[in-house]
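Lab meeting prep.
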Amino acid sequence: MYSDFKHFISLFPLLFIAFVMNAQDNAVTFEMNLSKEKLGINERLRVEFTMNKDGDDFSPPDFKGFRVLMGPSQAISSSWINGVRSYSKTYSYTLAPTERGKFTIKQASIVIDGKVYKSLAKTVEVTAAVAKPNDDMNVDDYADDNLHLVAEVSKTNPYLNEAITVVYKLYVSPSIRVSNYRPLDNPKYNNFWSQDIPVQRLNAENGTYKGKAYRYVVLKRVVLYPQKSGKLDIEPLSLDVTVDVPTNKRDFFGGRVYTQTNKTVSAGNRTINVKALPTAGKPANFGGAVGDFDFSVTTSKTSLNASESLQAVVEVSGQGNLKLFQLPTPELPSSLEVYDPEHNEEVRTTLAGTRGKISDSYTIVPSFKGKYPVPSISFSYFNPNTASYHTVDSKEILINVLEGPTNSQGNVNTNPTNTKHSVVTTGNQFNFIKLNPNLTAKGTHYFFGSRAFYLWLLLPLILIPLAIVLHKKRDAIASDVEGNKIKKANRLARKYLSEAKKTLGQKDAFFIAMEKALHNYLKAKLKIETSEFSKDKISSLLNEKDVDIETIDGFIGLLKNCEMARYSPFSEVQMQQDYDRASKVIANLDKQL
């Protein structure tokens, strides 16, 4: 008996949980739902009374302030899911307002299992007539009212070269569904340096738009640095969206029937008022840095022997337009051999802007024994948070060369200007002109019977086999179709890039000429004005022409380099590399097109 009692006690929690779940399943709900809480006097209102269990003696409210156009109509939905029955019954009314004002739709009642249940009363506001009432709205109008693409700009009045963020959000009303979308036109961001922040996943979140509840998805994020003061326009992003819109029809189970339509939505133009940097207090060495930065000059060592090397690093770290200004150059003694700097960037872009560090690393090799001071250098920047300029000075560094030859002049030249060396002459610098030329009389020669005579006589016999060999070689070249295509493509590439080659070493002129060459090539090849196209459109166009992905990426990459070159330093080696890449890309395009 004790064991039976113990067994019952152990089952008691399970019985209690089953009882609670059964009670929840059997809980009766009776609710009133309105199609909208605010409407024009020329619109229609749909009122639904929904219960999860069938009942009797349904009693609707009197609908004061409204006229009943249709109803009550009934819809019943019943289903079994995992052994659990789901039931829903709805009484629907379509009402027309009779006057303006605020009206209360009072409680409705119904008897379920012998008990009376009542819905909650709700208030409706009736305003003046609207331009297009909801009963006259078609599917497209309904989608327009419930779908919005918004460009949220973090700051509309930034300073020149101050970061602003643009986030593109697609707001979707809970009453409609979005099944697909594709971009129609991406903004070009003229007069801005732009950096995209990739959206890894599309996550729907709850939000509000103009005071109403919506779900929204972040589609695109970009950080912009204005490169010009005054009013600048941000071009709109446009999308083609496939939307499922509810209709007034119901299916067999009482659920709403949806219809599909395509809508074009645009974020609209946004105007940014860019403030110029103040001239008051502007340092003479200001190079365009805008943000909040730290500055330092360091060396890998301060004591070494002659012919050994050390690294001097000029570094700026912090947050701001790190990719849009050049670092100051250290003034080093002319007795030190200094190589061109290696530029390094460790930069990441977030919604707050660009953050990280950039540096120039100089390799220095001393030739003579002695002490060489590296003077302090200054770095100036404008901080938009304080609206003022700041200047940071580096510490002076002393390089001590312990062992090595001594400067022949007996002292170490620490002046950072070039040293002039005296010219030492070797050998005889002046020679006398010969007064006696020792000329001899030229002998008389006859052409007939001479070596030249026999050479011209045998020349036709020599040319005949040579002509045969050349003819065979020409036929072989003509039959090499693939080789001829490659040669033709290479000639075409050299033709379009000839202007760029002439300006190698001149950054701005070179990249302008190369960008023009790339667009002119597509213009000539495809008979289109590619200068009006975005990079995405050019990529799509080449993809339609069955150009391989590697060649398309190479072409788009060159266009991006041309844009980046306006604001970033490029060495002559990088220009030569881009020129070689451009020749290869144009040649590959010509073969495939």
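Slide two material, second protein:
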Amino acid sequence: MKRPDKRRRPGLLPALSSRGAQSSRGIRASIGSLSTLSRSKALTWTERLNSVTHLLASLEYLTRRKDREWGGANNWDVNRRMFHEQAPRFARAMDLVAHPRVSTALHLSRAAAAAALWLPLSPRQRVAANTVLAGSQAALHAQHLYGSDGADQISFLVQALTTVARVSHRRPAIADAALWFVSLQSVLSYTVSGWAKLPSDTWRSGRALPNIIRTHTYGDPDAWELMRRYPRLTRLAAHGVLAFECAFPLVFAGRGRLAPYMLGAAGAFHLVNARMMGLGRFFWAFAATYPAVLYTTGPRVRTAPDGTVSRRDDALPGTVAAAGLALLAAGQAARAHRRRIVTRGRGDERTVTTSAGNTLAYRVLGEDVLSEGASGPVVILESGMAATTEHWERIATQLARRFTTVTYQRAGYGGSRYQAGGEYHFDAIVDDLTEVARHVAGDRPIVLVGHSLGGYLALLAAERLSAQVRGVALIDSSHPAELQRSIRQAEGGRALTNSLALMPASLDLGLGSLLECPAWVNRLPPEARTTALAQYRDAKLWAAARREWKVVKEKFERFDGVLPRITAPLVVITAGQTAVTDTVQVDLHDEFAAAAPQARQHLIQGADHDEILTDAGRAAEVSTILTAFLDDLRDASLGDDSQNGGERR
């Protein structure tokens, strides 16, 4: 028997190693060729990949007739009402486009143009096909108001810019600007998505992915079962998504060397989403941006195989960077101006330094009322979280006509400064309120009035101030059990956690001017609006709210069911919208009333949580209720004094 020739074996490894090296060099060369994508190829592949999104969208429309019937997401009879109310002339044109024959013809032409872009067309033919796609998508968008998604939005942006680039094919600078715009939008989309998820505890804990996969809309039973069985891998995947999206700007690092790998990972991510969540068009819509990313992250100077040298025009990113720096500078100037408005306040603030070291600003209204009122109770108004004292403007003005009325800003809000050292605790909020009350009232009786979180704080302060508190009024108050018993409040709490994680840093960057003026500011009296809006856009208010919410959330989630001891008469006022949208809150307000020795309850019909204070009509109703409550307390106090020899306190 012939023995194996062992001398041949050592030669096998070098051969395999040589083939592996050649294969590796081939892969690197293929990836390197992606980074040197020419302008022409970048445009061609951008429009081809994007055309698939259009083709799929039109095929979905043509094969899903039920979506356009009554009750469907794209039924024009529903969408047209909004257009006819807001833009009647535009709506008449949309009525024509929405005719079944016209819509069908547009979708057929759209599908034909999308397929044609994969053929070797002439420049003019490509311009025509791109124009058909951009125009038809714009014309048909109104019909898909409730059926469109992010894939439709990104595909339209890519299509519009590709059309501009093709129309201006003799001006390379315009084509480069269009490709730069697509590239920057792609990078921004991924990056913003990651940073928006980062504050979410649901994403950081890894619960987000199984929660999404378990839903009816995006669910996949097999994928959910795998995630349930392997929680650590699921958490790792969630963290991987966060890290990848947040780090997406690295496609520009190292002259684009990472771009092909990162785009490959992004494409794989969308393929997984297409399989598990049914988001097939998202893959093609975002993949259509990848050629532009490769083109803009690659070398600026390119040499074609025939020796032709081309130079990419980078005027757009330079312009964007300059505009960004200018906006940042303007934002910082506006931020400083708002801060001056906040610290200046209304001009009549006083300050008190609490035992914790906080300096709190407060206003006293109604000091010059009739002697009868001046010797009566001091009414102290406690605000909700992330709220300004200007919320009380209408009610405080009304009460101050007959009673000494005090508003103050908690530590960190407005002109108040948070200077306490050590770890922050929930009791610190109540401590400050109690000290303010004792400081401004002296020996006079106190009535505490609180809105939202301020209602619960008022109850806790009343328990500490004991007999000096003659009454407590709760206006659409928070209840310490609301996060445990109300699904709506629990969901709102999670959303608030995410918002508060982003707001202070965003406003510190000078983005406050982008924060839309809320409706409640415009409902305030004119003299209070400027200060209120400046506070609302001030980072310190949101930093204070974030600090408060952390300890409030912990306390509410651990609430043991025992309410503060209520010994004074109580009035509970509920906003009508609160009662309608969250019946649990009504039960919780009933519990407040049941825990008091004397209690009255009122419902302000139609008012929401903010309107109950800021709307002129709603605030007048609340003021009337509070005035009657205060009068009753005064009469009861006078009756007690007469029984005790006529002495008045």
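Talking points for slide two:
The longest helix spans residues 315-344.
The longest strand covers residues 359-365.
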